[in-house]
Each structure stands twice: as structure tokens, then as C-alpha cells.
Amino acid sequence: MKPSDSLRFMGKPVAYYKNLSRYLGGATAAILFSQLFYWSDKTDNPEGVYKQLDELCEETGLTLEELRTARKKLRERNVLIETHKRLEHKIYFRIDFDAFDALIAEFGELDNPDSPKQENPTPRNGESRFGEQGKTDFVIDQENTTLDYNTRLHTQNNNPLPLTGQGQSADADKSEVASPANKKLSIDYDAIVDEFNQAVDGTPIPKVKVISEQRKKLVLSIAKLFKKQFGNCETETFRGYFDDFIRQANQRRDRFYYGGGPTGWVADFDYILKQKTFVKTYEDAL
């Protein structure tokens, strides 16, 4: 059987409101929005629908990296609200329809996007906010992804946490960063920096402008620790860690990590990427 002949057995194609791509930042963001929109009226939880990242990957056909980028674009446009319930190891996703309406208003009125007259595959199950009806399925053709830091936090794990000096040092030489073994970690340094800058936005912690070789070594060192402790070192794992550090820093009345100490010292990227800092954060001991 030719590959083209087997397409009919792969399920229905991905369907989404394609005209939203220009408003939401691209096709992947529109696909994710459409899927979350589909689930939005199927939960009574005010925080939205609970979804694991690998589950969203399966439902939409997006890779984990594409999903990360799509989430970022929707958050930047304020149409997606994510609530991280770390003690429950869950992430809830909710569409902010008021923000969506305001976003569309900035571009002018939508001209009946993806109406049944224009495109049949677009409608979702049930009656949509755009007055359309129909039923479609997403292609499930995505390998399972590992759980991120948010789903692992506070769960029991017997793997020891090696500190700097007990195993791989944070001061690995430059050749190690580019070694074949480390390439398997698939570290996206720019994406990690981007997640860090989003996490510290609105705090006194300075944003990163330069990802130097020394900082890459710090990222590599803690990525190895994540890999050993959680089984993965994806960008989402870093984001979960950054968010947890900020959460604990916000809980300190003395605002120590924000310059509230006697010396006025403020935590930064280099400090947060130290293995000792991660251990304290993971153990809720900041």
C-alpha cells in the first residue's frame, strides 16, 4: 500500500479556526486555542480545564516545543490563563474571552471566520462562540512526552540530588557543552532564557539579556540534575522550576531575594541556576 493510500486510515485531519492565526500569532497558537475552546464549556471549574502537556500534544498533534511556543503566544496576548496547582501536580487552562474579544476588537470585527460556507472541517463539537456546529477529531500522532517539573514537584523520588562537587560540576569546560552526550539533552538555551524572563517579569530580579558560555554551563549542569531527578530536562521543566522559585520568594516577608536583606542583594539568573538553589527550592526551603 502506498503511503498516500494509507492516509484515510490515520483518522480525521486537524481542524481549527484558521482565520484566528493572524490574531493569535500563527497556526499552532490557533490550533491550541481551538482545542481549549472546545473544552472550555465542558468543565465547571472556574480555573478552566485540567490537561497534561502530553495529552494536549496528542489531541492537537503539536510537538512539545510547538505547544510551548503556542502557549507563550496565547499568554502574551492575555487570552490564555494558566493556573499551576503544584501540590496537585496539575495545570489548568482557561480562555479569557473578555481579553479575546478585546484583542479581536483591536484588529476590527471578524468577518465570520471559518464559517460553514467557507470551510466545513473547521467547526468544533457543539455550538461554538462563532455560531457554528459540527464534530471533528484531532489526529493523534504524537509520541508520549515526559512529565515536567510541575507534575513532579513534591512527589516522592528516591534519586539523590547531587550538589555541585558531588557529580558533575557547574564549571564544566566548554567542550563538554557541545559533547555528543550533551546534545541528546536537546537544550534550547534561548527558550529557557525566554521562560526565565517571563517568570521574573514584575519582580526586582533582572531579566537575562546575554546567554554567555558560562551561563550555558550552568544550564547544562542543572539540566543534568533535572534529567536524573525527573527523567527529563525539557524547557517546561525549567519554567516550572523558575515559577516555583518566584512563588517561594514572594512568600518571604523580608523579600530577601528581592533586595530586602541588609546588603540589598537581589537574586539573578546565575544564582537561580545553581544546583544548591534548586535543591533548596525543590525542598521548599528558600
What structural keywords apply?
286 residues; mainly alpha; Arc Repressor Mutant, subunit A; 2 domains; 3-stranded antiparallel beta sheet; 3 strands; 43% helix; 5% strand
Structural description of this entry:
With about 290 residues, the protein is mainly α. It has two domains: about 10-145, Arc Repressor Mutant, subunit A (Orthogonal Bundle), CATH 1.10.10.10; about 150-280, no CATH class. Helices cover about 45% and strands about 5% of the residues. It contains 14 helices and three strands. The chain has helices at about 5, 20-25, 25-40, 55-60, 65-75, 95-105, 150, 175, 180-185, 190-200, 215-230, 235-250, 270, 275-280, and strands at about 50, 80-85, 90-95. A three-stranded antiparallel beta sheet has the order 1-3-2. A hairpin with a 4-residue loop joins β2 (about 80-85) and β3 (about 90-95). It is globular and about 60 Å long. The termini are far apart. Residues about 110-150 and about 150-185 have low confidence and may be disordered.
